[in-house]
Specification:
By secondary structure, the protein is α+β, with helices and mostly antiparallel strands. The chain has 3 helices and 6 strands, in the order αβββαβαββ.
């Protein structure tokens, strides 16, 4: 049989769904449930949000963002706590995330996350000295 391999960004969701189906047949798990919350101002403008998903008892925090004009008001901490509480309700025992922002790493440490791995670029590896921290928190 001949196979054609080509770039196909539109197939990403389909590929992931097949993988998750196959994994569920090997090791039953709870559902993969999206955990997403948004904060809007009185004009309806998005000023902060968190997006993640549950899998195998873990909450993956994919994105936590607060608009720079609204930072320092506790929105990030509030969103993180709400998402963690929802994950607990869904049966999760822990959360994990990754970040390449040193200030965000400090924020997550203040909220009980600890480092469990990292990727670091060295000399001549672009971008030089870039570091991605992988963090987790047991509930």
């Amino acid at each position: 049989m001949d196979y054609e391999v080509r770039e196909a960004p539109e197939a990403g969701i389909e590929i992931e769904s097949y993988l998750l189906r196959d994994l569920r047949s090997l090791l039953p798990q709870g559902e993969n449930i999206s955990v997403t919350y948004a904060v809007r101002d009185d004009k309806g403008t998005l000023v902060a949000g968190i997006s993640g998903a549950t899998s195998y008892g873990w909450l993956l925090v994919k994105v936590l963002w607060v608009h720079e004009d609204h930072r320092g008001q506790g929105l990030g901490a509030r969103l993180l706590a709400i998402a963690e509480n929802k994950a607990r309700e869904l049966g999760c025992h822990a959360a994990w995330l990754d970040t390449s922002n040193p200030a965000a790493e400090t924020f997550y440490r203040r909220h009980g996350y600890s480092l469990f791995g990292e990727l670091e670029n060295g000399e001549g590896e672009l971008p030089e000295h870039h570091r991605r921290a992988f963090m987790r928190k047991r509930f």
